[in-house]
Amino acid sequence: MKVVTYYRVSTAAQGRSGLGLEAQRATVEAFCASRSCEVLAEFMEVESGKRAHRPELEKALHRAKVTGATLVIAKLDRLSRNAAFLLTLRDSGVDFIAADMPDACRLTVGILAMVAEQEREAIADRTRKALAAAKARGTRLGNPNGAAAIRRAGKGNAASVAVQKAAADQLASNLGSTIEDLRAEGRTSLPAIAAGLNERHIRTARGGRWHPSSVRNLLARLPAMV
Fold first, then answer.
1. Please, what are the domains in the chain?
2. Of 3, 28, 42, 52, which residue is the least packed, with the fewest Cβ within 10 Å?
């Protein structure tokens, strides 16, 4: 399992002394060893747990997202005690695990998400009832010509192309900060950027390795996004 590790200490003094950090690291390392994890990157933050904005956590989440890795922390309360923040994390698309209680994250976030899920189910139920009432009144629902009209208009392939373009645009948006970091390191050529992305285990939109040509296509999408 590929993982990105994240550690947080509350004060600058703790960060300098390692107080609290070594215990977290020991817990995470033991977990990773038991699961044969491949650690792709490590991030450490000196920040109060009451604040939702944490740059290093954002970097850790970004790295986990673009590499398809799992975020690993020592304890759940090291991430946040804020329910809204945990729900945001859940919806970020990044899997995360608390090393001391591997099932705690899914269980806790699942409980916290129950209210939101219930509301979504209520909305869906109201929508179904509204559609049923409209149908009972004789209102025709949906496209009367079905998919045939779309095929005749030649929009089927266009829709597929649009999906692929949206995925490429999203990847470019996600990688904007990574490209900036690589350039700051002096990696400005297409081959150098490709090598940097591959070293970070970041895949292309189609799941492949980066080459100068694919980096050129990526950079062409960045000016309007970065």
1. 2-109 (3.40.50.1390), 158-221 (no CATH)
2. 52
Distance separating alpha carbons of residues 102 and 1, to the nearest angstrom: 14
φ, ψ of residue 173 to 5 degrees: the values are -60, -40
Q: For the purposes of burial, counting CB atoms within 10 Å of the CB of 36, is it exposed (0-12), middle (13-18) or buried (19 or more)?
A: exposed
The sign of the torsion formed by the CA atoms of 87, 89, 93, 97 equals negative
Locate tokens 């944490």: which residue?
Answer: 54
Distance of CA 21 to CAs 44, 71, 207, Å? 9, 17, 35
pTM, full prediction: 0.54
Between CA 203 and CA 40 the distance in angstroms is: 13
| Residues 85, 98: Cα–Cα separation, whole Å | 16
CA distances to 25, 46, 62, 185 from 42, rounded to whole Å, are 10, 14, 12, 18
Annotation marks residue 10 as catalytic: yes
pLDDT in tens, the chain (226 residues): 999 999 887 755 444 444 478 888 899 999 999 999 999 999 988 765 555 567 888 899 899 999 999 999 887 655 545 555 666 667 777 888 888 777 765 566 656 545 445 555 666 677 888 888 877 877 766 555 555 554 555 555 555 566 667 777 778 888 888 898 899 999 999 999 999 999 988 888 877 899 999 999 888 887 643 4
d(CA 34, CA 26): 12
List the catalytic residue out of 10, 92, 173, 177.
10
